[in-house]
Specification:
The chain is mainly alpha-helical. Helix content is 56%, strand content 0%. It has a domain at 25-103. The protein has five helices and no strands.
Length: 114
């Protein structure tokens, strides 16, 4: 099978932007994550747990739907990483984390605001 590297699928930055725009995480979910990080017991209660569990299920579903190509957005990765113990020794999760880091766009020093 001959696959051309010019196909959009093989342009990681475009791939990352495409998914990040389609699957943004709501502000209330990110607030729930912040609360859960600050207070681990809050992560197990009520609306905080429900919002995070729902977001995690959506993220994991997207990863499984394209397990060799899906690149999580920064917010998706933050939620996924919060629950990293659930995915210990899971090769699909390991590849998803690696893809996130491999596709992370870091500004050049001259592009940073200072």
């Amino acid at each position: 099978m001959n696959i051309s590297p010019n196909l959009p699928y093989y342009q990681p930055q475009q791939h990352l932007e495409k998914h990040a725009n389609q699957n943004s995480i709501s502000k209330d979910v990110m607030l729930a994550l912040e609360v859960a990080r600050d207070s681990p017991e809050a992560a197990d209660h009520g609306i905080i747990r429900d919002k995070l569990e729902s977001a995690l299920a959506d993220i994991w579903g997207r990863v499984l739907a394209d397990e060799f190509g899906y690149v999580m957005s920064r917010d998706e990765f933050a939620i996924f990483n919060f629950y990293q113990d659930r995915f210990r020794n899971n090769p699909v999760a390991t590849r998803a984390r690696k893809r996130y880091w491999d596709n992370l766009s870091v500004p050049e020093p001259n592009q940073q605001h200072g």
